[in-house]
Amino acid sequence: MSHEADAAGAEGSVTVRRDGAVLRMTLDRPSRRNSLSQAMIGTLVEALTKAAADDSLRAVHVRGGEDFCAGVDWIASNDGRRPRSGDLVRRIPHAAHRVIELVATIQVPVLCSVRGWAAGFGCNLALAADFTVAATDAVFWEPFLDRGFSPDSGATWLLPRLVGLARARRMLLLGEKVAGADAADWGLIHQAVSPAELDDAAEQLLDRLASGPTAALGLAKQALSFGQHATLSQSMTQELFNLELSCRTADFKEGLEAFRQRRPPKFQGR
């Protein structure tokens, strides 16, 4: 193997492939528990940006291997040196933070399936997804303070909204690790299943999402996000605008027709 191939393997990769109406992204850097290199982050940003403009897409699936993602490899990114002042503020919003924003705002449902470690950025990536299914023995961990720096990638926004301040403090300030089974009990993730059942559980949910009324799903996702920083009145106004849009879709007509005929709807994502 050439030195170039060795370097590429150490850098890791993200496999992006289209599977019908589903975009599948697989993190592949097992030697580093799928911690993300800058090249991997760039691939995620590019793929998700393209997906946001693809009206034929109906769901996104993000997965790892034995581990989901152990965070961002800051040591490799900075050649083992402390970043210079202002460097992180300049770079991260267009890299790691952009991935979280895209996952949270893209107008199709995003599902993460988690085995092994979901740490730091990897934990927050799973939390930003619309649905995360994890193995019961997976581990969710926010190790920022254990490493001597403050949280990033949306941790301080996501955790309190999902599990409340008390549990957010346990994870962020005390660095408590949360097993997949407990994460599901807390409401941190959608579901925890045995490791042997994980792939099937993820596929069943993915099939359901990919066969849903895609435009209405996207609008509902947008309204949920809007409601996190809006009043009840503002949220209901936003819902009315979204309702106006969703009522113009072919899937809305199909939903009504299926209701009249007492049959399951066959949505086409249009």
Structural commentary:
With 270 residues, this protein is α/β, with parallel strands linked by helices. The chain is built from 12 helices and 9 strands. It has 2 domains: 211 residues, 2-enoyl-CoA Hydratase, Chain A, domain 1 (Alpha-Beta Complex), CATH 3.90.226; 48 residues, Orthogonal Bundle (Lyase 2-enoyl-coa Hydratase, Chain  A, domain 2), CATH 1.10.12. The chain is 48% helix and 15% strand. A hairpin with a 2-residue loop joins β1 and β2. The chain starts with a helix and ends in a 10-residue tail after the last helix.
Contiguous low-pLDDT stretches (5 residues minimum) are: 1-8, 85-91
Q: Determine the CATH superfamily of the largest domain.
A: 2-enoyl-CoA Hydratase, Chain A, domain 1
Give the strand order of the largest sheet, numbering strands 1, 2, ... along the chain: 1-2-3-4-6-9
**Number of contiguous helices:** 12
Percentage of residues assigned to helices: 40-55%
The description of the largest β-sheet is: 6 strands, mixed
Number of domains: 2
Shape-level CATH architecture of the largest domain:
Alpha-Beta Complex
Mean pLDDT: 89
| Apparent shape | globular
Q: What is the CATH class designation of the largest domain?
A: Alpha Beta
Compute the separation of the termini in Å: 48 Å
Based on helices, strands and strand pairing, what is the structural class? alpha/beta
Task: Tell me the β content.
Answer: 5-15%
Sketch the topology as an H/E string, one letter per element.
Answer: HEEHEHHHEEHEEHEHEHHHH
Using only C-alpha atoms, the radius of gyration works out to 19 Å
What name does CATH use for the topology of the largest domain? Answer: 2-enoyl-CoA Hydratase, Chain A, domain 1
Q: Work out the number of β strands.
A: 9
